[in-house]
Amino acid sequence: MHLIITDAWLAKSRAIYLSGTKLVVAGFVASFALMLVAAGLYHWVFLKGAREGWPVIGSLVKLMVKDEFDQRDRFMRENLDVMAKRLGEMQAKMMQLEALGERVSGLAGVSPAEIKSTMGSGGALVGSRSLTMEELQATLADLDKLTDQRVDLMTVMESRLFDQKIKKLMVPTQQPVAGGILGSSFGWRIDPLNGRSALHTGLDFPSEPGTPIVAAAGGIVVTQEYHPAYGNMVEIDHGNDLITRYAHSSKVLVKKGDLIKRGQKIAEVGTTGRSTGPHLHFEVLVQGVFQDPQKFLTAGRDMPATKMAVLSPVKQPVQAAQMPRPK
Length: 327
Hints:
Layout: E1 2-6, E2 13-17, H1 20-52, H2 55-108, H3 133-169, E3 187-190, E4 197-200, E5 203-206, E6 212-214, E7 219-227, E8 231-237, E9 242-249, E10 251-252, E11 259-260, E12 265-268, E13 279-286, E14 289-291, H4 293-302
Antiparallel strand pairs: 1-2, 3-4, 5-13, 6-12, 7-8, 7-11, 8-9, 9-13, 10-12, 13-14
Helix pairs in contact: 2-3
């Protein structure tokens, strides 16, 4: 496109050539400028009409404000309904948690009176409405309070169950020699060295030399020494005045003061001390009195784990290892 521009007296003229690209750009710029002018004019007229109360403009403003409030109210209502649904799900889970707490409390020894029974609820649906924000907040506050109570209760039960587990681990119910065949049992017998009747204060487990000896329960090594009768001897204190003794070992792997876990290897079978052959002599003492180790080992093999704590010396009176001497 050619444009020729002349002055008023036609004395001077100027030719301008516009290509297709330049025409498009010029049209776009002109359209954009026109849109800005129109938007500014509309904005000015709309604000002026709203401030001065023009009838048409005032009606439009009221419609726009009403529509905005309706949308906001609908949005809040939908969110409240969703939150109320989630609240119902949380309450259902809380009821499940309460039922679980009742079952676990029996294992933990918690009195049922400490747990508030869950009351049933229901009925025909006559009418319903959406919850208000205040009602929803109050319900959430009640649920939070109930959750705190249940957490406290579960913490108490966890502590008691943990105590029971610790007591079970501290009672010597682990076989000290894997697959060991019981030789001499606890009680009166004919002494194999002098042929006279004597009290055998433990259990003998004949085994090959070097067979691992493991701790019957967790505890602390209080004695590790060579004894003229017991040979290489280890004593483990399990608390509550309960001690296990392991004698005649060929090699000791622990020392006094070591913390021992249940089933940990502490020595190897040997024939040191007053012995006629390789074996483990295993004893259990409660308050310094010899006990029959077989009752502990049998209980650990046959009784449920939840009842092992009954063997604890705290709850079971100590029976002295005094048996009538045979005539």
